[in-house]
Amino acid sequence: MKVAIKFLTSIAFLSIFAGTAAVNAAHHEGDAAPAEPNIVEVAASNADFSTLVAAVQAADLAEVLAGEGPYTVFAPTNEAFAALPAGTVEMLLLPENKDKLVAILTYHVVAGNVSAAEVVEMTEVTTLQGATAAVVVTEEGVTVGGADVVMTDIEASNGVIHVIDAV
């Protein structure tokens, strides 16, 4: 059942990102092709990442994650943020908690463009926060830092996003 849910979730995300890619790729003959969106733009184009995008903006990390990179982001969905204890997200978004928010968000980012094929060969990743997150590969899937990876290899101009189900 868990594998079926992950598959359906992946299909839903794929259709959303395929639609975004199609819109971005469409252009008139003679017009310059639109630039490939960066990590922040890709996340902002999907309503399932609205909490993540709001947190990135509150932490003043949007400019960094829109920069040259490359970065690998293990991106929690809105559902993952909603699973936190009541009031946690709101508390973290307060200006006085910016340092905590930065620490949490940078724990979800790895320097470099690390594809899913590379992640499954690792036992841990070192995050921008400085901590390591364990990578566990089983027949049921992959976890990074205890979060299930539910979709992989969402390309951006400055890196890649892997979708996870927990913060």
Description:
Helices cover 40% and strands 23% of the residues. It starts with a helix and ends with a strand. It is globular and about 40 Å long. A seven-stranded mixed β-sheet has the order 2-1-7-6-5-4-3. The model is unreliable at 1-29 (pLDDT under 50). By secondary structure, the protein is α+β, with helices and mostly antiparallel strands. The longest helix has 24 residues, at 2-25. A hairpin with a 2-residue loop joins strand 4 (132-138) and strand 5.
Question: How are the secondary structure elements laid out?
Answer:
Blueprint: H1 2-25, H2 39-44, H3 50-58, H4 62-65, E1 71-76, H5 78-82, H6 88-92, H7 98-106, E2 109-111, H8 116-119, E3 124-126, E4 132-138, E5 141-144, E6 147-156, E7 159-164
Parallel strand pairs: 1-7
Antiparallel strand pairs: 1-2, 3-4, 4-5, 5-6, 6-7
Q: What would the keywords be for this entry?
A:
167 residues, single chain, disordered N terminus, 7-stranded mixed β-sheet, globular
| Strand tally | 7
Major β-sheet, in short? 7 strands, mixed
What is the CA-atom radius of gyration, in angstroms? Answer: 16 Å
**Straight-line N-to-C gap:** 22 Å
State the order of secondary-structure elements, H for helix, E for strand: HHHHEHHHEHEEEEE
Task: Give the strand order, joined by hyphens, for the main sheet.
Answer: 2-1-7-6-5-4-3
Q: What helical percentage do the residues reach?
A: 25-40%
Overall pLDDT level: 86
Uncertain runs: 1-29
- Global morphology: globular
Beta-sheet strand percentage? 15-25%
Structural class, by secondary structure, is alpha+beta
User: Number of helix segments?
Assistant: 8
